[in-house]
């Protein structure tokens, strides 16, 4: 490797490092991130404080989360085990939580570079690692307290070992690596099955043309063992959640689109990230054509075994999920993304017309920068849950709280857990925080014909018996999915009989979000994602 290549790669890595560490805490935690946090550390048992616990206690909590909590809500354990140890070692601050994802995301850059250089050349490797470093999708998921960066990392490692066995089958470490990384991959996210299926499809293709089934029979055997070892988690998860997933398909953002449009939409999100509106035509049209041209150019070289392998790794997960798996979100396919970048980089570096090459590079960089700009300025987010202003809401309560105040949240899953995180776990405010939703997994009902609130130990407090001087009431746009029709309005009328409203503010108007402009009518366009109201006891 020449000094020039090393220097160029270091520049690429520094760019990736900067864009991932820049303003790491500019967004609040959102519902799924809070879920990751509460799965990984049982704050309920520790009175919503981060307490130092022994490694034995950590293992106990992890085992409970991995075997009970995760399989009950369609999650697999590897990321949460890692996050649990991370929290134990470094604490639960927002910066620390996001830093784990930054490290995972950064580690993919040199890994992709070395993998691509070995099987292609330095030019393709530099191009692929550069596109990875400025990818809007990966910048976002290098900040998210979720498993998607780890899913991509293990998918790349597993695929690398798979390819090494085909080319250097006698080395035992490649076989051990394939088994270990495939198992970790399978236990990170259920959509890992699609890339594993792609491995098997390519193995069949490779053996058919090379007539060497016996020589490479070890690969499907190792894959079978990995699936077998992961199967207890999958069996339990599917038994507990299959009907729930099927019944909630209409709630998934991309499920409203027909399959043939998703075959285009999925690569669109992989290319542009989740912070660019499809109707931003001045960016989408030229940049989208650049991505599409470079990808489709590879079909002319599909007889090249390496290109064929990469095409299968990219196309099979996209096409099969678009046709067969209605709830699919594009981020579930992130494990295929590195191979998509290699294909694009291969076409780009092999273009003989330099003006065209430079034009395509400029277009792709331009599109990535626009999407990254939108990401940091909270514009054109596909998922408006990710721009909810929970830190602002919590800081208002924190700055204006008085002795005798309580906080009453609506839903347990979102409001109660996020407000508790910012006010009690981080700020140590000592405020008593209640929820109208007793249990994450049970619908809301009246208790003895009375409106009630609950603390974190699920103790019941009738609303009519509240004696607090002031109530900070936090509502969320998803309350219409959690509570019976009219429940919240009737409750507010009960509160107003004893309290007067002294403050009210809406945050993140739903009508201004990208979701409100799509054919997904989840909520009223007139509403806000969060509403904060302060009530004071009438004298």
Secondary structure layout plus pairing:
Elements lengths: L2 H19 L9 H10 L14 H15 L8 H13 L3 H26 L2 H12 L2 H6 L6 H20 L4 H15 L5 H19 L7 H30 L11 H14 L8 H16 L8 H20 L12 H13 L4 H23 L13 H11 L4 E5 L2 H15 L5 E4 L16 E3 L5 E3 L7 E7 L2 H4 L4 H10 L2 E11 L18 E10 L2
Parallel strand pairs: 1-2, 1-5
Antiparallel strand pairs: 3-4, 5-7, 6-7
Task: Note down, in words, how this protein is organized.
The chain is of the alpha/beta class and 539 residues long. It has two domains: 3-384, no CATH class; 388-537. The protein has helices at residues 3-21, 31-40, 55-69, 78-90, 94-119, 122-133, 136-141, 148-167, 172-186, 192-210, 218-247, 259-272, 281-296, 305-324, 337-349, 354-376, 390-400, 412-426, 479-482, 487-496, and strands spanning 405-409, 432-435, 452-454, 460-462, 470-476, 499-509, 528-537. The strands form two sheets. The chain has a five-stranded mixed sheet, covered by helices on one side. Helix 3 runs antiparallel to helix 4 (78-90), helix 12 (259-272) packs across helix 14 (305-324) and helix 17 crosses helix 18. The chain is globular and about 85 Å long. It starts with a helix and ends with a strand. Residues 75-234 form the Glycosyltransferase RgtA/B/C/D-like domain. Its main location: membrane. The chain crosses the membrane at residues 5-22, 95-115, 147-166, 178-205, 217-240, 252-270, 276-296, 308-326, 332-351, 358-376. It is found in: Cell membrane.
Describe, in short, the structure shown.
This protein has 539 residues and is of the alpha/beta class. The protein has helices spanning 3-21, 31-40, 55-69, 78-90, 94-119, 122-133, 136-141, 148-167, 172-186, 192-210, 218-247, 259-272, 281-296, 305-324, 337-349, 354-376, 390-400, 412-426, 479-482, 487-496; strands spanning 405-409, 432-435, 452-454, 460-462, 470-476, 499-509, 528-537.
């Amino acid at each position: 490797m020449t000094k020039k290549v090393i220097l160029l790669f270091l520049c690429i890595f520094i760019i990736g490092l900067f864009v991932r560490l820049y303003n790491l805490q500019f967004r609040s935690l959102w519902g799924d991130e809070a879920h990751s946090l509460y799965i990984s550390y049982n704050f309920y048992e520790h009175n919503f404080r981060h307490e130092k616990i022994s490694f034995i206690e950590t293992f106990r909590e992890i085992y409970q989360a991995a075997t009970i909590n995760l399989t009950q809500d369609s999650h697999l354990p590897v990321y949460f085990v890692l996050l649990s140890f991370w929290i134990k070692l470094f604490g639960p601050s927002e910066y620390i939580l996001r830093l784990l994802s930054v490290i995972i995301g950064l580690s993919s850059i040199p890994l992709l570079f070395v993998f691509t250089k070995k099987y292609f050349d330095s030019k393709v490797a530099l191009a692929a690692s550069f596109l990875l470093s400025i990818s809007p999708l990966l910048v976002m998921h290098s900040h998210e307290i979720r498993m998607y960066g780890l899913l991509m990392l293990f998918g790349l490692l597993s695929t690398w070992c798979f390819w090494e066995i085909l080319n250097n089958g006698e080395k035992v470490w490649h076989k051990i690596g394939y088994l270990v990384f495939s198992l970790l991959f399978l236990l990170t996210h259920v959509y890992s099955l699609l890339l594993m299926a792609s491995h098997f499809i390519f193995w069949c293709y490779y053996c058919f043309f090379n007539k060497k089934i016996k020589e490479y029979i070890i690969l499907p055997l190792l894959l079978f063992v990995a699936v077998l070892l992961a199967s207890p988690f999958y069996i339990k998860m599917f038994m507990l959640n299959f009907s729930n997933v099927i019944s909630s398909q209409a709630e998934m953002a991309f499920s409203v689109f027909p399959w043939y449009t998703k075959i285009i939409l999925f690569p669109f999100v992989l290319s542009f990230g989740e912070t660019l509106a499809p109707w931003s035509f001045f960016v989408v049209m030229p940049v989208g054509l650049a991505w599409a041209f470079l990808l489709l150019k590879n079909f002319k070289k599909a007889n090249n075994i390496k290109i064929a392998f990469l095409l299968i790794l990219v196309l099979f997960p996209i096409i099969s999920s678009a046709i067969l798996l209605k709830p699919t979100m594009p981020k579930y396919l992130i494990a295929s993304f590195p191979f998509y970048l290699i294909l694009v980089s291969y076409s780009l570096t092999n273009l003989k017309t330099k003006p065209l090459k430079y034009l395509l590079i400029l277009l792709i960089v331009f599109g990535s920068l626009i999407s990254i700009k939108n990401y940091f300025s909270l514009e054109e987010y596909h998922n408006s849950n990710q721009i909810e202003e929970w830190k602002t809401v919590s800081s208002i309560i924190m700055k204006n709280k008085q002795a005798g105040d309580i906080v009453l949240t609506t839903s347990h899953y979102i409001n109660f857990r996020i407000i508790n995180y910012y006010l009690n776990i981080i700020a140590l405010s000592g405020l008593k925080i209640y929820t109208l939703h007793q249990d994450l997994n049970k619908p809301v009902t009246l208790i003895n014909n009375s409106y009630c609130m609950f603390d974190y130990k699920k103790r019941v407090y009738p609303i009519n018996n509240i004696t607090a001087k002031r109530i900070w009431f936090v509502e969320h746009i998803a309350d219409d999915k959690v509570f019976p029709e009219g429940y919240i309005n009737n409750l507010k009328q009960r509160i107003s009989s004893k309290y007067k409203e002294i403050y009210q503010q809406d945050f993140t108007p739903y009508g201004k979000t990208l979701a409100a402009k799509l054919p997904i009518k989840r909520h009223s366009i007139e509403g806000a994602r969060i509403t904060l109201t302060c009530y004071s006891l009438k004298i």
